[in-house]
Amino acid sequence: MPSATPSSPHVMNTYGRLPIALSHGQGCRVWDTNGREYLDALGGIAVNTVGHNHPKLVPALQDQLTKLIHTSNYYHVPHQEVLARLLVERSGLTNVFFCSTGLEANEAALKLARKFGHDKGIERPEIVVYEKAFHGRSIATLSATGNPKVQAGFGPLVEGFIRVPVNNLAALKAATEGNPNVVAVFMEAIQGEGGVNPMHMDYLRDVRALCDTRDWLLMIDEVQCGMGRTGKWFAHQWAGIKPDVMPLAKGLGSGVPVGAVVVGPRAANIFQPGNHGSTFGGNPLAMRAGVETIRIMEEEGLLENAEKVGAYLKASLETALAAEIANGGVKEIRGLGLMLGIDLAKPCGALVQRAVDAGLLISVTADTVVRLVPPLILSRAEADEIVTILCPLISALLKEAA
Ligand SMILES: *Cc1c(COP(=O)(O)O)cnc(C)c1O
Q: Is 3 contained in some domain?
């Protein structure tokens, strides 16, 4: 993040903000209040699935605004039933709880895991979580997060987590050996904030099998990598497995806050009336946004687009940065579909402002990783433009003295 420039004496100073304000957008382009144009390779942090001002999404939301924005979960909400069915069909799971954000979806997942344990007589349930994981900023989800910077100043952390390294089955087995209190394994299929770190397909399959053998829930946080970003609806589907619990948010509403926890049969009946809830969760405006997002994704072939344009972008970055890859300045280009990370051999936070100056919106995570999570409508020409703007900035940064 860039250096903090408070924009107002009244807005709490929680983000180091870039010195621009965006006023409107169209597709993968946004304009600031001075009329400058930017190519949006950040998509509101993997949120703006169908881009800005989409010609089908906007009229649908306008229509919904004139009918109902919010009712409450005291009544049936027909659009919840539609969106739940769409998510169930695409995931192969069975039931959905709706909320509004990623951390809220993950809180629900953690509560499900604990109650799953209590229902089998485990009074102090423990959940396996990962190094470098990010699950949100509530007290429970920041405790599950594997980043000391997110946790600093907010102790005591919530107990009941066992932390293991990614992609290491032996370490997972060793850390849980003989422990009767383990109830779940909780992971991102591709870690986002932690630096775009994919779980290996074999590892996902092995953990699925281990969870089956030990009667643990497999909970896969697809808040960032889900909703078509990798070219399948959900990133874990590349491994041919199903989780028991899958939190979603970010891309699900194309910018309208929508969160969901999608569960399979083992977790479908854990919550009973009174166990969990959310005032905003599943409101008619949010549900309409989710339904229309999925409809547009299918009508416009956005899964296929994410897979193809993502592969093209990755290959183009590899070509343009071949010299830097050869000399070690670029350590790796990772990710799947339109969730890519360029891992550099040195911290690269300065690139965010330089990219803005050059008309491109990106982010940097885990200090050294340039993250690209553009809208899933990105074209090949726009992918070329990302490469043309970004790669010279990376090369120049790598040539500067430390
Ligand atoms: C962004 C993110 C969250 C938190 O989502 P919020 O909507 O900011 O609460 C949780 N998990 C993952 C994997 C994320 O990328």
A: no
- E strands within 237-368? 245-248, 259-263, 330-336, 339-344, 360-361, 363-365
pLDDT for residue 123 is more than 70: yes
Ligand 1 centroid vs 326 CA: distance in angstroms? 34
Asked which of 299, 321, 344 is the last residue of a domain, the reply is 299
- The predicted-structure confidence for 324-351, as pLDDT tens digits, reads as follows 999 999 999 999 999 999 999 999 999 9
DSSP code of 369?
Answer: E
CATH of the domain at 388: 3.90.1150.10
Q: Which domain holds residue 27?
A: 22-53+301-399
pLDDT bucket at 17, cuts 50 / 70 / 90: very high
Index of the ligand 1 atom closest to the CA of residue 192? 15
Q: Compute how many other C-beta atoms are within 10 angstroms of the C-beta atom of residue 398.
A: 18
pTM score, whole prediction: 0.97
Q: Which residues form the pocket of ligand 1, taking CB atoms under 6 Å from any ligand atom?
A: 101-103, 106, 134-136, 188, 192-193, 221, 223-224, 249-250
Segment 161-168 shows an average pLDDT of 98
Q: Is residue 368 part of a domain?
A: yes
Amino acid at 143: S
pLDDT at 176: 98
Pick from 264, 299, 334: which residue ends a domain? 299
- Are 26 and 140 part of one and the same domain? no
Q: What mean pLDDT, rounded, does the chain reach?
A: 97
Annotated binding site for pyridoxal 5'-phosphate: 134, 221-224, 279
Start-end of H helices in 124-200: 139-144, 148-151, 169-176
- pLDDT reading at 4 higher than 50: no
Tell whether the model's pLDDT for residue 402 goes beyond 80: no
CA–CA separation, 192 and 198 (whole Å): 9
Label residues 228-249 b or e (16+ Cβ within 10 Å = b).
bbbbbbbbbbbbebbbbbbbbb
Q: How many helices (H) and strands (E) does the chain have?
A: 13, 17
> What are the angstrom distances between the C-alpha of 386 and each of 50, 60, 273, 311?
18, 31, 49, 14
